[in-house]
Specification:
By secondary structure, the protein is mainly α. It is built from four helices and no strands.
Length: 98
Amino acid sequence: MPNEDINEKRVDAAFETVERLRSSAWNLTIAEAAALSERVRVEIMLDKTMSGAQKRWYRAYSDYLDDIVDERMEKAGIDRASFHNWVLRYIRGFLNDD
């Protein structure tokens, strides 16, 4: 690795992808961001082929989404407990949908 050349265009393109992912989360509604966070957590539990590094990345992304939800709910004056119950009902419906 120390002798490898770094392709700056590839690094820049990868960073742009990260930025698009970050900004796309802010374009979701509060409910959508919360639902996506829960769905990511479910995926971590269900996908037995994920490596440890992949699981950590998904957990970090889910935590990021939770932070977005918390921040936006606080600004909107929404009670987190009642919203959490709504998300749980959504996920249960998602899991029971065949």
